[in-house]
Structure formats: C-alpha cells, structure tokens
Amino acid sequence: MVPVFSARKRRVDDGPDEDIETEGERHLQTLAxxxxxxxxxxxxxxxxxxxxSGTSAFKPSVESLAGIVNLSEYxxxxxxxxxVEELGHFGLTEEEMKLQLxxxxxxxxxxxxxxxxxxxxxxxxxxxxxxxxxxxxxxxxYKTSDNFADVRCVTRHxxxxxxxxxxxxPDGQKLSNILIKQKEYEKSNPLSMVxxxxxxIDSKIKDQICEKRKERKRLRKKSKVDNLHVNQxxxxxxxxxxxxxxxxxxxxxxNILCDEKISSESGDDVSDVFIGPLxxxxxxxxxxxxxxxxxxxxxxxxxxxNRLSVDDIIQISKFENYTPGExxxxxxxxNLHSNVTQEDLIALFGRFQQKDEPIxxxxxxxxxxxxxxxxxxxxxxxxxxxxxxxxxxxxxxKPIIIQYGKKQ
Length: 408
Known about the structure:
Layout: H1 23-36, H2 42-47, H3 71-89, H4 94-105, H5 121-143, H6 156-168, H7 175-178, H8 194-231, H9 233-240, E1 243-245, H10 250-265, E2 290-292, H11 300-305, H12 310-315, E3 330-334, H13 342-349, E4 361-364, E5 373-376, H14 380-390, E6 394-395, E7 398-399, E8 401-404
C-alpha cells in the first residue's frame, strides 16, 4: 500500500520565540564569570599582569653648557639630545642608546668603552639588530590604535550575524552598542575634527542652558507660591486664626470687681451653700476662639510724636519704593520687632473698635513670615484712619510700615 500525502500545506503553529544568545551577551557573561571567579592561584594572577616600558629621566646636555660655544657645536649637541630623547621613547636602556648613537655617528669613543659587546664586531652587530627590532616594534605599536582591556575584536561576518540576530530579538542588546567606535580623522588636516568638536560643545551649552531655565522656572514657581501664601492669609484667617478684640469697657470690669467684693462681704452661712454634683465641663470649641484682652491703649499724642512721616519712610533704603497701595479694609503690617505681641497691636488699633460694629481681627504671623501682621477692619474708612495714625510709629525701636492688603 503506497502512502498518499496531501498536497495542501500544513499549518505550523507559531511557538514561542527562541531566545538566541548574541555575541555581546556571551562576551558580557564571560567577563562576569571572570570577575566572580575566586578559584585562582597566585601564579595565574601574576600572569594577568601587564608589562609597561619603564620611565627614563631625560636630561638635555645643552642645559649643562657653560662658557663660549660655537654654533656648530651647539647644533650638534641639540641634535644629539633630540636623538637621545627619541631613543628613550622606544624603551632603550642608556647602554643601548649609547651604542645606537655610536652607530649613527660612526664615531668611536676613546675615553671609555661603551659596553662589553663593543670588543667583538659580530656581537656588536647582533646587539644593534636587537635594538633595531625593538625600535621597529615600538614604531608599529605607536601606529596602531589603542585597544581597551578585554575588548573583543569582531570580524565583519560576525557583525552581520549579530545584526541578523538582533533584528529578530529586539529585546536583546546589540553588540554595536557595546563596541567603542572612534572616528578617524585625516592626519594631514587637523581641522577635520573641528565640526565634531563644535557639535559637542553646542550640545553641552544647550544642556547648560536647559538646566538654567529649569532653575529659573523653579525659583519663579517658588516666588509665586510665596505670594499666594501672603494673599491667602485672609482665607486661612477665617478658619484657623484667633480673633482678638478689645472692648473699652473699664466700667464693666469695675462692676465685676464690685460684685465679687459684695458677695465676699455678705457673710452667707455655710448651710445656704448648695452642695451637689459638679457641673460637666463645657467642651472646648474647635476652630475660631475669642480672647478678650484688657489692654490700656497707647495715647494718640504719644503715637503722633513717635512716628515717621511718609517722606522719612521713603528715605530708608529698604522702603524707598513704599506706596500705601489700593485702599481696602485690610492693613498689612511689616518691619515689626520680634518682641511685638497681640497685646501691642490691640494697644495701637483697639481705639478703632466700635460697639455695634464687627470685631477687629488681628493676625500676627510667625515662622517664615515673622515680623508681619494682618489686621481686618469692618470697613475701609476705619482702616484708612488707622493707617494715617499708626503708619511709621516706632514700636520697640523699629518703625511699623503699613500698607493696604491685596484684594482677592
């Protein structure tokens, strides 16, 4: 029986994407394993050390010249110094440099022998060949670009494979992001790198400008918040402030004292005193409180004789731009002394309290707004009289500066 295959294409279900390890991920794993590997011997650790050519102190012989020297001799010494400095960059020892200079100048030294190898010409030739080999190795090393430690060289074929894998694996990190690319410039034209440098400088300048703009916006926002805090003090006063008012009622206080004296002199018997359960304490009311102060007002003549005029206030450098502002029923007091209390404000403005009018509200600020206060009067007429009387009064040695509050 011959099996029959269907001509229709079979549908293959798409399975989960295969997690393909890229070259960059493999290289990172290798570096991580090397970093975390603790099972390493001392010999292996020393084998990883790198050798660097030792430093040599170059002292030009031209600096040690003294007396009169011919120009030709000076030029010859300067050329010899330049050659010695060049040979020192190739990592040659002092003995090797002397031997190379002897070979370059074809002059035999008569005072001292250069080295033990100068006796045999064949040995000297081998030594010169070794020196030339070292010079050629250093020259080729200078021509090649510097490579970082543990940087892996990738061929073009491997880069193409990496790109093909990365296209199917968007979450994987591309190897091209790991490699460090350095643009090559023409050595004959040093100005070829100027456009890139200008672009880099422009980007740094733009970043600095953006940071300064953000800082200015932050400061501007902070100043707006402070201004709003000043303007909203009247709203907060309706909910949280303590209403302080003064009633010029010396007669009532005297009557209370007289009643207490009469009750004490009546001599009632103890049997007439009612003994029973104590009354329940009245619950404390939250929110606005009314506190009455029996404060003696400051005489008006004393205020007038100890206050500054508007011209005197303007003469102060801090308040040279002083203006009362637009008239309203709220007075804004500033430049207050730190010892000023609510009683002091009542002693100044309590005279403007009318019996049948709404009470005057005092708001003495604290914290960051220390030295400022707000006083709310029933109407604009009373606030105008209060400003004209008290503005510039020197309380505790500091003049009170009064302005009309800002309207909401």
